[in-house]
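This part of the workshop introduces the protein records we will be handling. Getting from the letters to the tokens is the skill we practise here. The record below serves as our worked example for the rest of this section.

…
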Amino acid sequence: MNIFLTFIKNPTAIDRNGTHDIRFDVFEKIAFRLKEKHRVFVMPVNSHCWDCIYMRSGKLQEKYIGHFEPMKSHFEKDIDLVISWDPLYVIKEWPTSIYKDKFMERTGRDIPFLSYEHGHMKDSIIIDGEGMFDCSEFANNNKLNTICEQGYNEKKCKAFMKDYLSGNKSKRKQEGSKDAVAIGTGESVNINNVKNYVFIPTQKADDVSLKASKIDVFQCLEETYKFCVQKEMPLVVKIHPHIANNFYREQFDFIKKFNDPRSQVYVSKYSINYLMQNARYTVCLNGASLMDNFINQTPVLSLAPSMYKNTDALIYSDNAQEGLSRIHSGDWDLDKMLDKQRKIIWWYINNNLSPHKTTEENIKVLENRFNLNLL
């Protein structure tokens, strides 16, 4: 089999002080294992892995050149399987996009085309047969709502969740004190003293996962704030922990205008797990925050498309006021929602990749998910 694998390496993508990228670490091992049986073509998609693959030092050259072949456009027609980082928009070293539809159009072949990206849990890599976010194989059907029922082990799932939360885990580090800033007064308030609040974990304003969303980060904040004013409920906001400098200030300054006394607003840097567990409910767009809600077994409204939008694990609406009215009404089955959240968690950890799995286990995930014969 001829396999085309793109590499991405951005050590600071999850942690600003990060020193490695699990996507590169996992797929490097997979590539070497696949090379034992298949012809593997590779291509880097950023400068960090350009040196690692095209080898500008003697040791790296010795390690890689004899194993992998650099991908060239004239090889496209011979490729049997593509495993590509997504989102892959523009690659300077490549003449055309490697999106699935473009690749199929150029080659005239319908081959397995797998996309991968940082996952929704700590140390996980999500893999999909169509693409990420609104392009996921689950985005426009209820397939995930059904397949997550298969092979579910409630006892093991609950044990995993307990262990995950015991370490205060999330996709990103959860640091910061319980002191929150009260908007309007600027006073420091212990978040333990804020009760019955609505919680919003924000995303990056230019997050690629929001490309197809009708609602952006600022609209989510404003619409939820208006609703909290109407219902006279406090609002707690955690600005995305990876946002810094002017981007953080942009979101904080936007929130500073929320000064109606009927809804006190707080900005907190405390653990997302605590903030979700103690909220009346969470309002978010999409992404890893949804999985945080699932792990914490808390009700959540999602206002942007994702692979989870057609499941019973959440309430989804692209109309903020309609969605807020529904989740606030309580006219939905909480037990059914939490049960589905657990089943999706169990499906997720068993059907995606992780540096904590062996290389063979990760390849088996690819084989089982996409009916491949790789080993």
User: Anything to note?
Assistant: Residues 336 and 343 are 11 Å apart (CA to CA). The chain has 13 helices and 14 strands.
